[in-house]
């Protein structure tokens, strides 16, 4: 049982549970002591965090649009019953996270949205866009059968020396987001129709071919766009891109896809939750 200073401790009974409210340094800690003897210590969420979550939720629900002004500091103070300092702490955090931006003597506005890809799961671009209710289309540059290079044979452990090569620009709401350069294991996929290459390869593998994707080994680095990618992604050739190498395998360990995806950094950001292990 935690030890508290008596004058900071308030006790109440509710449905056979003893609830202790402990006030310390402007925060409220709640300690539950149940009739079974298990103790739980909970810290109440700070007000500035609630304000951040409120603004982020409104952005996700499209109550605020890109470059649209959000409520004033005064309005947020009235809404949450807090001081201006608390509101400013929330707004400063959102500015630092590139969610909003501030115009002096005018107010705070919603930044142009970046699309997030999370590394805590394996999703295709199509699936990421579907979660955000965005329209994902493809401009297919190349869709043909090729002889595998020595690198392909080695990296994909091919039984057949052929790969199906797909190059395509992925567009979200009509704007180029990334360029995919994929080699598919022809022994597993066979010919890939053009209409499939225009949509989701993962969906084709799993739902049409009944293959079970297990994992993707991914490596990330940065490269300059160059002339070809610059043209397809509508950026200057010296613009940096995030390049992701993906080696995607089935449950039986066979590699089904090997390729690079080049992302525009102004359109896509990556989010990763890192767990500490010893």
Automatic annotation (TrEMBL):
Highest rank taxon of the organism: Bacteria
Molecular function GO terms recorded: DNA binding; DNA-binding transcription factor activity
Span of domain HTH gntR-type: 45-113
Entry keyword set: DNA-binding, Transcription, Transcription regulation
GO biological process: negative regulation of DNA-templated transcription
Pfam families: GntR, UTRA
PANTHER family: MANNOSYL-D-GLYCERATE TRANSPORT/METABOLISM SYSTEM REPRESSOR MNGR-RELATED, MANNOSYL-D-GLYCERATE TRANSPORT_METABOLISM SYSTEM REPRESSOR MNGR-RELATED
Annotated protein name in UniProt: GntR family transcriptional regulator
Organism encoding this protein: Faecalibacillus intestinalis
């Amino acid at each position: 049982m935690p030890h508290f200073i008596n004058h900071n401790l308030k006790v109440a009974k509710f449905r056979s549970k003893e609830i202790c409210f402990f006030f310390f340094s402007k925060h409220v800690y709640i300690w539950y002591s149940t009739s079974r003897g298990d103790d739980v210590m909970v810290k109440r969420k700070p007000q500035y965090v609630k304000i951040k979550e409120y603004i982020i939720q409104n952005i996700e629900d499209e109550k605020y649009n890109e470059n649209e002004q959000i409520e004033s500091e005064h309005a947020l103070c009235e809404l949450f019953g807090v001081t201006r300092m608390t509101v400013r702490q929330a707004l400063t955090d959102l500015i630092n996270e590139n969610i909003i931006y501030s115009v002096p003597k005018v107010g705070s506005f919603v930044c142009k949205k970046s699309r997030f890809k999370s590394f805590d799961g394996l999703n295709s671009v199509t699936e990421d866009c579907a979660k955000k209710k965005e329209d994902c289309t493809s401009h297919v540059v190349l869709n043909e059968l090729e002889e595998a290079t020595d690198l392909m044979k080695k990296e994909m452990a091919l039984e057949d020396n052929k790969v199906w090569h797909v190059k395509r620009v992925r567009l979200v709401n009509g704007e180029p987001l990334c360029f995919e350069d994929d080699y598919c294991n022809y022994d597993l996929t066979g010919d890939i129709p053009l209409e499939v290459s225009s949509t989701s390869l993962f969906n084709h593998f799993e739902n049409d071919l009944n293959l079970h994707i297990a994992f993707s080994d991914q490596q990330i680095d940065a490269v300059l766009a160059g002339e070809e990618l610059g043209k397809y992604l509508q950026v200057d050739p010296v613009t940096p891109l995030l390049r992701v190498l993906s080696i995607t395998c089935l449950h039986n360990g066979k590699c089904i896809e090997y390729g690079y995806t080049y992302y525009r950094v102004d359109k896509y950001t990556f989010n990763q939750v890192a767990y500490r292990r010893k």
